[in-house]
Design brief:
Layout: E1 2-8, E2 15-19, E3 25-31, E4 38-44, E5 47-55, E6 62-67, E7 70-78, E8 85-89, E9 93-98, E10 103-108, E11 111-119, E12 125-131, H1 137-157
């Protein structure tokens, strides 16, 4: 079991880090802000190990989560305006998430590989992450990035038209 902390701050260059328990940077995330198709790369020792892509030309917002060049999950907005939500599609993953608190757990092929929750801080965002399977660490972190991107887009696009019924999503 490993504890990680993903720290994001509001920066134009869209760079942030993922640190281990000792505070050592184990991963970096970089993104392009001024491109039509938005990408975020998960880097380990300057090598891309995962990627999250927001599809630009789709009817509803659509996020692809890739590991080793293979799409492992898609996160797509469903519904319109008043009752919008996100659907997560994956053959190998099961993701339980509470979109309002951003508490989640991820299962891969029936085994729980990680869980996390958003820590509310004054500037930026932080996620406390627990990885249960070291072999699936990159997979788990890529999924977390995809969930974060979907939530960020949902927050911006549906600020006044979200489903505020309080039910678990």
């Amino acid at each position: 079991m490993k504890q990680l902390l993903m720290k994001q701050t509001f920066e134009l260059n869209r760079r942030f880090t993922i640190q281990d328990e000792a505070g050592q940077i184990t991963y970096e995330v970089t993104g392009q802000v001024f491109q039509m198709q938005k990408n975020w790369q998960l880097l380990h020792k300057k090598t891309e190990v995962g990627r999250v892509t927001k599809q630009t030309f789709s009817m509803l917002p659509h996020v692809l989560v890739e590991v080793d060049g293979r799409v492992i999950a898609t996160i797509q907005k469903t519904g319109a305006f008043i009752f919008s939500d996100y659907r997560i599609d994956s053959r190998e993953l099961k993701i339980d998430i509470n979109w309002s608190t951003m508490a989640f757990s991820v299962m891969y092929q029936g085994n729980k590989i990680g869980q996390g929750k958003r820590r509310w801080v004054r500037f930026g965002k932080q996620y406390e992450l627990t990885v249960f399977d070291d072999a699936a660490e990159v997979l788990f972190l890529s999924v977390v990035l995809g969930l974060d991107r979907a939530k960020a887009d949902k927050t911006v696009s549906t600020l006044f038209s979200d489903n505020w019924t309080g039910r678990k999503k």
